[in-house]
Amino acid sequence: MNQNLMYFPCLAMMILTVIVMMRMFVMRVLAVKNKDINITYFKTYNTGDAPRLMLQADRHFVNLFEAPVLFYMVCAFSVITFHVDSKMLWAAWIYVFFRCIHAFIHVTSNKITPRMLAYVGSWIALLYMGLSLGYKLLQAAVS
């Protein structure tokens, strides 16, 4: 299988991160423009009550630098070690799918149960990827 195909789920995650960043920026600008917060709020992020949608976008942007870092690591290791196969690639796309659903829910309605299910779905895909890669690397080390 072409190892370079693993780049595209990573690119999709990067695009998702940029979209959430843009949403965060728009929500911040609107909050200041609508006088929901004072621009000085952004000096320390602890003065006054910020609007819910702005906080959700802020929190999700930070979230995209937590678990997804492990996703990028597993993708990179699978490419470097030539262990990208169709199952690994599908799992990567499933991870991206669930992260997109999670992001949409988190920055809009923020309904806890569907958000949690999307988050768990992404972790199942990521765990599959990590364990599968670990098994392949262990097999290669033993043979």
From TrEMBL:
Keywords assigned: Membrane, Transmembrane, Transmembrane helix
| A Pfam family this chain is assigned to | MAPEG
Which residue windows are transmembrane per the record?
6-26, 61-82, 88-105, 117-138
Please identify the protein, giving its name as recorded: MAPEG family protein
Q: Which domain of life is it from?
A: Bacteria
Q: Where in the cell is it found?
A: Membrane
Keyword Membrane assigned? yes
Predominant location: membrane
* Keyword hit for Transit peptide: no
Signal peptide per UniProt: none
Among InterPro entries, the record links this protein to: MAPEG-like_dom_sf, Membr-assoc_MAPEG
